[in-house]
């Protein structure tokens, strides 16, 4: 958990993903299209990826990917991010976190 805490504090938006996960791809595309420039950690391609995946499950990410953190706080997975987008809350949240300057 300490490793995740450190990683999510380094950038305004952090996504934990797997390279072949279609929902992860969708969320990465959405946030990049907004200009958020998230830090993306592909858990199937990095060392300690399995350990991070287990930690994400322990903190309530189910499924573990995609797991999106904005401003150091867990937002959730694809469903939560899409809900925020559809209700108009995602862009203001990204702005507050310093991920967007528009």
TrEMBL record:
<keyword id="KW-0963">Cytoplasm</keyword>
<dbReference type="InterPro" id="IPR002109">
    <property type="entry name" value="Glutaredoxin"/>
</dbReference>
<dbReference type="InterPro" id="IPR011905">
    <property type="entry name" value="GlrX-like_pln_2"/>
</dbReference>
<protein>
    <submittedName>
        <fullName>Monothiol glutaredoxin-S2-like</fullName>
    </submittedName>
</protein>
<dbReference type="InterPro" id="IPR014025">
    <property type="entry name" value="Glutaredoxin_subgr"/>
</dbReference>
<comment type="similarity">
    <text>Belongs to the glutaredoxin family. CC-type subfamily.</text>
</comment>
<keyword id="KW-0676">Redox-active center</keyword>
<dbReference type="Pfam" id="PF00462">
    <property type="entry name" value="Glutaredoxin"/>
</dbReference>
<feature type="domain" description="Glutaredoxin">
    <location>
        <begin position="13"/>
        <end position="75"/>
    </location>
</feature>
<dbReference type="InterPro" id="IPR036249">
    <property type="entry name" value="Thioredoxin-like_sf"/>
</dbReference>
């Amino acid at each position: 958990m300490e490793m995740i805490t450190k990683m999510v504090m380094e950038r305004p938006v952090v996504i934990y993903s797997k390279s072949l996960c279609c929902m992860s791809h969708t969320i990465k595309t959405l946030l990049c299209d907004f200009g958020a420039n998230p830090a993306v950690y592909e858990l199937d391609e990095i060392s300690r990826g399995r350990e991070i995946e287990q930690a994400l499950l322990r903190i309530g990410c189910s499924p573990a990917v995609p797991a999106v953190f904005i401003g150091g706080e867990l937002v959730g997975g694809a469903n939560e991010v899409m809900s925020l987008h559809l209700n108009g809350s995602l862009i203001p949240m990204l702005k507050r976190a310093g991920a967007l300057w528009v």
